[in-house]
Amino acid sequence: MPQLDVDFVRSQFPAFQVPGLSDQAFFENAGGSYTCGPVIDRLTRFYRERKVQPYAPYAAAQAGGAEMDEARTRLAGLMGVKREEVSFGPSTSANTFVLAQAVRKWLGGTDGAIVVTNQDHEANSGVWRRLGDEGITIREWQVDPETGHLSLDGLRALLADGKAKLVCFPHCSNVVAELNPVAEICSMARAAGAYTVVDGVSYAPHGLPDVGKLGADVYLFSAYKVYGPHQGIMAIREAIGAALPNQAHYFNGGTLYKRFTPAGPDHAQIAACAGMVDYFDTLYAHHFGAAPATPAEKGAAVHDLMRDHEIALLQPLLDYVAGRNDVRLIGPREAANRAPTVAVALDRAAEPVSEELGKMGINCWAGDFYAVRPLTAMGVDLEKGVLRLSFVHYTSKAEVTRLITALDQVL
After folding, report:
1. What are residue 116's DSSP bridge partners?
2. Per the database record, which ranges form the Aminotransferase class V domain (predicted)?
3. pTM here?
């Protein structure tokens, strides 16, 4: 495995050449990443040349429709699913909300249960919990209050009676950051007769997973955190898509990728999502050459390239934070077991600390990050919040060193 060429990576992101950004160290990537050049190019081209109703029988419309189809086809190849199984929506929160309305009709009036966790971002927790108001049983898979860890034994107990029909959980939490064993969880749920909904928002920026191999029935993530436009992307497998009632116009119910999109899609942003795959392909070609590979194989290689780089940069930061007695590291101490999203509870309010870091050119933030449930379960004072430091593969070793130096001064 070659090492990630960070200079090449950063050359693909216009933000690093922009005055006012180029001298800043960006550690707020869990809130949204910089956008890669190919996405910006495609979005600009669509608005300039193809901003018409797509698929109509004239050149501009045909070009726009073809580019939208290209985005769906190529993302599906990267994620190991069928092209019909890739849906776009205005955000992951909106996609989850629509999905929950379908589940409400599907499970309403039955004794079926939904398993949720208190490790989630609220988008993959609140919509399911509200179905309890409809008489649907909600079961909570709870984190360990010290570590934030989700034990498989806890899930096993919730599945034991066979009434659970849906298990909703994160690939990793946006504050705990521990990588949950998605394939094993999906296998357990399937054996118990339940479908799975996996929130991949906090994981996907670190390498898009092969959803087919994971076995998830639904996998959701946000393109704007994966170097793309502001779209929610949902891989929904055929079996669950057919089981759930249509949420779109009745005449679109026979098309899986339209079935859970009740509003008109953003044509330009869908087309621009093909630029995400352009970027991944460019990374593959730069590091691995022109050797033939399937889209899923390219995706896996780029995933591993990103993760290896992130792990190497993350461990020194974790060691530094864990070595202080005035902060509490949320989640695992081992870089290989987590995403590079580092939330710390301080002995003071966290937001003023993020403001001080901002003055030093360290861009980060503080608060609860819609992770009220896990932070509460772990005894974190929500008034103080947590300081969150998050990076991705375009972060350099020098920037992490700069962060540690700044933290040492501010704390």
Report:
1. 140
2. 26-403
3. 0.97
Task: Count the alpha carbons within 13 Å of 3 in the hemisphere toward its beta carbon.
Answer: 8
Contact in structure between 174 and 371 (CB atoms under 8 Å): yes
- For 364, the 3-state DSSP assignment is coil
Q: Quickly list H helices, 80-175.
A: 92-107, 126-129, 152-159
- CA separation, residue 371 to residues 119, 203, 389 (Å): 8, 15, 15
How far apart CA 219 and CA 351 sit, in angstroms, is 32
Query: What are the beta bridge partners of residue 195?
Result: 166
Instruction: Provide CB contacts within 8 A for 39, sequence distance 6+.
Output: 227, 228, 229, 272, 273, 275, 276, 278, 279
Count of all residues that appear for the chain in the document: 411
How far is 375 from 127, CA to CA, in rounded Å?
19
Express the helix, strand and coil content of the chain in percent, nearest 5 each.
50, 15, 35
Checking if the pLDDT of 86 tops 90, the result is yes
Comparing C-alpha atoms, which of 299, 302, 119 is closest to residue 198? 119
Q: How far apart are alpha carbons 393 and 205 in whole angstroms?
A: 9
Three-state DSSP class for 281? helix
Backbone angles phi and psi of 28, in degrees to 5: -125, 35
Q: Please check the confidence at residue 187 and state whether its pLDDT lies above 90.
A: yes
Q: Residues 176, 156: contact at Cβ < 8 Å?
A: no
